[in-house]
Specification:
Blueprint lengths: L4 E4 L1 H5 L7 H15 L3 H4 L1 E2 L8 E5 L2 E8 L4 E9 L4 H19 L1
Parallel strand pairs: 1-5
Antiparallel strand pairs: 2-3, 3-4, 4-5
Length: about 110
């Protein structure tokens, strides 16, 4: 079994977690590392349409959106939020512009 490196984007910690209470933050972080470091494709579901190429992990009422980077054997968590009226997916689309600009600078 290979171990995947899990990276959580700074916007998840600085922005998304401000809207989530400490207890749920802890559960989300533990679940991310437990599931995504071992089998990111098994535990997640691929997204479609505008978010094709990204995956979602369901953690109770929350959704974590991530990208699998197979060549690096890593997972990049880009968004975490409550799944209210697909809000987390709409916010992710907005966030993509920021993240893609960062990728170009790397």
């Amino acid at each position: 079994m290979k171990i995947w490196k899990v990276k959580i984007h700074k916007l998840v910690i600085d922005t998304d977690f401000k809207k989530i209470d400490k207890k749920d933050q802890s559960i989300i972080i533990k679940t991310i590392y437990k599931k995504l470091s071992t089998f990111p494709e098994k535990y997640g579901d691929p997204l479609r349409h505008n978010l094709k190429g990204y995956w979602k992990l369901k953690i109770s009422a929350y959704r974590v959106i991530y990208r699998i980077e197979k060549e690096k054997v890593s997972v990049l968590v880009l968004k975490a939020g409550i799944r209210r009226d697909n809000e987390v997916y709409k916010d992710m689309l907005k966030r993509l512009n920021t993240v893609e600009k960062e990728d170009l600078q790397l």
